[in-house]
Amino acid sequence: METTRQRIADTLREGPATASDLGETLSLPTHVVYDHVEHVSRSVDGDAELLVAPPACRDCGFDGFDDPINEPSRCPECKSERIDEPAFVIR
């Protein structure tokens, strides 16, 4: 039986996914997925690495958020709450 983090890592090796995608696939709340993804990023083995497409504001395009492995609540530039989730993949 695989652990939750192993299942997340296996899913991310198959292709990119957001925390919402992973939560839906693995029946986990989104905030729990972010905690697991942060740990997976430190424990990826071999030559593989966790790549992150950072969150981006849908209104102004800002993507310079401080923590790319987190879902910000609003944009620091335009204050919009329309933020695309970060996407993760292991390659």
TrEMBL record:
Q: Where is the PF0610-like rubredoxin-like zinc beta-ribbon C-terminal domain?
A: 54-90
Q: State what protein this is by name.
A: Putative transcriptional regulator containing an HTH domain fused to a Zn-ribbon
Show the InterPro entries listed in the entry: PF0610-like, PF0610-like_wHTH_N, PF0610-like_Zn_ribbon_C, WH_DNA-bd_sf
Pfam families from the UniProt entry: PF0610-like_N (PF21476), Zn_ribbon_PF0610 (PF23470)
Q: Tell me the segments the record calls region Disordered.
A: 1-22
Basic and acidic residues composition-biased segments: 1-13
Q: Which residues form the PF0610-like winged HTH N-terminal domain?
A: 3-52
